Amino acid sequence: MINRIADWFEERAGFSSYIKKKLSVPIPNHLNFFYCFGGISLTIIILQLITGIYMTFFYKPNPEDAFNSLLRMSNEVPLGWFARNIHRWGATLLVATLITHIISVFYHKAYQKPRELNWFTGLTLFLIVFLFSLTGEILPWNWRAYWVLVIWTDYIATWPVIGEILRWPMLEYFSVSRSFVVHILILPIFAAILLTFHFKMVKRHGISGPL
């Protein structure tokens, strides 16, 4: 009976044949552990997405309730503490794996022709992940979030020519709710577009060979 149901489902959906096709793709002999950090980063991004969606049901994006809503989620919601810690430490780990991935790509000179677009989209994705981390640090709106905002705006003010131009709009138009919208909507849209393009380029050109 179970086999009959599985065959019926497979005939219409084709999941098993799709997985078998992907698993049968030949793997180059020169691959080693350092070639895996792109995939590791993608796995962490998926975990960040899952835990982030879970947390949005309990987080309140306003200065008065932001931190208390996280405390209630961590202390009262089933597995809330687990989701929050996975999300928080996942952000740090994601930055580390992406830096390792970028260094590995640079070392193997995989940014050269014809993979320039892979390199450009990868660096742009790293910038977006950094913005994810920055906006995520601000969302709890506790003393640590406040000083993160102060330190980064002061740092941006030191940039030549554009520093002061960028700093004042950041402070004038800042709000916890706007950071929340940027964190859960605007940045994910850009990240999804760039990730799709990045993987299409990897599929088109393949994995670079050794030096």
Low-pLDDT segments: none
- Report the strand count: 0
Element-by-element helix/strand order: HHHHHHHHH
What is the CA-based Rg, rounded?
A: 21 Å
Q: Averaged pLDDT, please?
A: 87
CATH architecture: Up-down Bundle
Structural class designation: mainly alpha
* Main sheet: strands, sense, barrel: none
State the shape.
Answer: globular
Q: What is the CATH fold-level name?
A: Cytochrome Bc1 Complex, Chain C
CATH class: Mainly Alpha
Q: What would you give as the CATH superfamily?
A: Cytochrome Bc1 Complex, Chain C
Q: Give the termini separation.
A: 54 Å
Total count of domains: 1
Strand content: under 5%
Q: What is the helical fraction, as a range of percent?
A: over 70%
Brief write-up:
This protein is mostly helical. Helices cover 75% and strands 0% of the residues.
Write the layout of secondary structure elements.
Elements: H1 2-13, H2 15-23, H3 37-56, H4 66-76, H5 80-107, H6 116-138, H7 143-157, H8 163-172, H9 176-205
Q: What does this protein look like?
A:
This protein is 75% helix and 0% strand. With 211 residues, it is an all-alpha fold. Helix 3 (37-56) packs antiparallel against helix 5 (80-107), helix 6 (116-138) runs antiparallel to helix 9 and helix 7 (143-157) runs antiparallel to helix 8. The relative contact order is 0.10. The mean pLDDT is 87.
